[in-house]
Amino acid sequence: SQTIHQWPATLVQPVGSPLSLECTVEGTSNPNLYWYRQAAGRGLQLLFYSVGIGQISSEVPQNLSASRPQDRQFILSSKKLLLSDSGFYLCAGQGDNSPLHFGNGTRLTVT
Amino acid sequence: GDSVTQMEGPVTLSEEAFLTINCTYTATGYPSLFWYVQYPGESLQLLLKATKADDKGSNKGFEATYRKETTSFHLEKGSVQVSDSAVYFCALGQGSGTYKYIFGTGTRLKVLA
């Protein structure tokens, strides 16, 4: 079965600093990959999804970007963090004929 | 665009009570429907799913039936336990291979002993 690895688990960054969150997938090839954000007291917001290497779809205009340099690697980045970027970031993956599986998440606090 | 609407929480129940969490959706085509659960301090995990109209998904005593005529996928459990306390998310998956997932805002359930 597929496993989603995310790191770091927690991160505290100052406003204006860069961000790089990495997600890797095991147990499946050519997965669909997703980045979601869960803000405090709110639901899940789809940020980006990717159906293949180099293919990124953005759902919400924002201060973040995503890249997929390898089949099982998905990276979330920002050049300059804002306070509003604080939240719980979840990477998820979907292999063939399987539902969405989530990583353990990264809790980002921008100070 | 596609959307999922869940009942607002929190929902507080006594142990062994009956649970219903309402979920309705708006979508073009024929999406798959899911319930995910997030236990305190953890990530989300799939609870159950249904891929076509009239399908019933079930797991751990929870059930939900895909109702196309009412565009609903309500979650039910006959007798809740304290360990069921969590946030429950309704979601739809749309597109070839179900590549685009939309989640509701989540409903927090608290079960008291």
List keywords for this structure.
heterodimer, A: 111 residues, mainly beta, seven-stranded mixed β-sheet, four-stranded antiparallel β-sheet, 11 strands, 0% helix, globular, B: 113 residues, six-stranded mixed β-sheet, 12 strands
Explain the layout of strands and helices.
The complex is a heterodimer of chains A (111) and B (113).
Chain A: E1 3-7, E2 10-13, E3 19-26, E4 32-38, E5 44-52, E6 55-58, E7 65-70, E8 73-78, E9 87-94, E10 101-102, E11 106-110
Parallel strand pairs in A: 2-11
Antiparallel strand pairs in A: 1-3, 3-8, 4-5, 4-9, 5-6, 7-8, 9-10, 9-11
Chain B: E1 3-6, E2 11-14, E3 19-21, E4 23-26, E5 32-38, E6 44-50, E7 56-59, E8 62-65, E9 75-77, E10 86-94, E11 100-103, E12 107-112
Parallel strand pairs in B: 2-12
Antiparallel strand pairs in B: 1-4, 3-9, 5-6, 5-10, 7-8, 8-9, 10-11, 10-12
Note the gap between the termini of chain A.
38 Å
Helix content of chain A: under 10%
Number of helix segments of chain A? 0
Return Rg of chain B in Å: 14 Å
End-to-end distance of chain B, in Å? 41 Å
- What's the story with the biggest beta sheet of chain B? 6 strands, mixed
Specify the biggest β-sheet of chain A.
7 strands, mixed
What count of helical segments of chain B does DSSP give? 0
Pick out the low-confidence regions of chain B: none
Q: Of all protein chain pairs, which has the greatest interface, and how many residues does each chain bring to it?
A: A-B, 20 and 21 residues
Q: Helical amount among residues of chain B, as a percent range?
A: under 10%
* Mean pLDDT figure of chain A: 91
Number of strands of chain B: 12
Tell me, what's the shape of chain A? Answer: globular
